[in-house]
């Protein structure tokens, strides 16, 4: 692939424009802003509504009925007792619940599918998000919700740590609450409070953020610096500035949650539309056994659409190109952070582009730094070029 080049610098202000209005954050209610004195109002945690849980149960029931009908047809068909192959998910490493493990090891019959999206022992909020994703994809693709639910359940069986990966990404909204708590602290030493708030912001910033979120975080940091400066000067406008900062924190939390919801919908769409998905996931795990297949697929679902031979060749090329500078564990970290590098020519082009943009620095190590830091405009430019070239080649 040709050398990837940094994108042209945008006009002033262009990089900070919001791409879309953020939704209301589901985890945290906006705090009531106060000028001075009085206790801050604590947000009340949101619970899934009875209607949401009922809808989830309806999806599960419909999927169960569909599965039962298929099994009845198989039982009535001639030669129904012949083995149709073991569960494809059995070859994917990772832990699972007892119910999923039992289904996964069924020796005969069609691939066993958990017929319910909602697992009573799992996190209720995550399950509600799965249900919402199933309903959204069902509407967008015009597919029966029961079919989409069953395909999603199979994906979760094949990738036993998928829930944990998505829950971890979804939890990226929570640290913004700690920033808000530190911001509301009354009577604190300004220097100590500023240091604590800035440290919490750095912890809350996710490596998953895109360019719009990175610009949002930069505006927040500038606003925080301005607010602490106003407080030191005794500026009467400091109270109003804090209200604006609280609104920014709410938007940061909302953006983190919305990003994870979008990733979840991508997984549901992948499960509902990709033929031969079990075999492709097994091939991905075989090509990169040390990596988390769930992280790879969540961050770049197109990998699950590649042919097994293509995946194996891409993994071998990555080890060859990176092995001179990075250890085996660092190669895995890089590919888990930026799995789009496994697209044809993307890794070679990115290394060449970094060597040109940052001469004298080891390109593989710089690539690892950019990929794991998050919000890198340079790497985002390389990614756009690499994916455009991959799409054009298809």
Key terms:
394 residues; 61% helix; mainly alpha; globular; 16 helices
Task: Describe what this molecule looks like in 3D.
This protein is mostly helical and 394 residues long. 61% of the residues lie in helices and 0% in strands. It contains 16 helices and no strands. It starts with 49 loop residues before the first helix and ends with a helix. 37% of the residues are buried.
Structural class: mainly alpha
User: Sheet bearing the most strands, described?
Assistant: none
Query: Could you give the order of the helices and strands?
Result: HHHHHHHHHHHHHHHH
What does the overall shape look like? globular
Question: How much beta, percentage-wise?
Answer: under 5%
Number of strands: 0
The CA-CA distance between the termini, in Å, is 15 Å
Secondary structure: helix percent:
55-70%
